[in-house]
Amino acid sequence: MKRNLLVFALVAIIALSVTSCGKKNEKTNTDKLCIEKGWVLKSATVTPAITVSGKTTTDFYADYLFEYEQDDIMVFAKSGSETIKPGSKKPADDQDGYVEDKASTWKFNDDESVLTCQLPFLYDLAAMPARTFSPAFENCTISKLSETEMVLIYKGVIDFNKTEYTFTLTYNAK
Fold first, then answer.
1. pLDDT classification of 127: cutoffs 50, 70, 90
2. Burial of residue 73 (number of CB atoms within 10 Å: 0-12, 13-18, 19+)
3. Does the structure show a pLDDT above 70 at 160?
4. Strand intervals (E) in 98-162
5. d(CA 150, CA 139)
């Protein structure tokens, strides 16, 4: 009887070990998003092509963002806080970009497929000065989210021409 109990216990331990080894601990989008060092924008494209001051392009990152906007860091915490930090390149003053950390918030929808947050380079063009940062939150569809890369799709209407644009924003983990 003791031998049968010992054999049964041994078989149960082996079975549990084998089944648990086969399971991977899948990370949620919240786990992937909330990395300690944050995210830095690496590319931004826009469709349809956007025209500003006579210049038309689909490469929003290279043609419209200033150097000091390209290295801003977005840090998300599981508590729901978002911090936008200036990178190593800073503008002359806070009218043109982030010169110090800015606190905000973020959230996912129920299935973690849409991220609602503030994007660092969007401005309230109706405000004075014209480069005042928008207090609005953007709803971005998660196209890809891994531990090293995040691709967001943001659709928004640009006030000055009333056209809806689709921005594809690719971020790398810092």
1. low
2. buried
3. no
4. 102-105, 107-108, 114-117, 123-124, 132-133, 138-145, 149-158
5. 15
Residue 98 CB partners (closer than 8 Å, separation 6+): 68, 72, 84, 85, 86, 90, 91, 120
**For residues 126 and 89, is the Cβ–Cβ distance under 8 A?**
no
Helix or strand holding residue 61 (H, E): helix 60-64
Considering only CA atoms, give the Rg of the chain: 23
pLDDT of residue 11: 43
The 10 Å Cβ neighbour count of residue 36 is: 8
Contact 126, 132 (CB under 8 A): no
Q: By three-state DSSP, how is residue 12 classified?
A: helix
Eight-state DSSP code of residue 53: T
Sign of CA dihedral 41, 47, 49, 51: negative
Supply 85's token pair.
């930090």
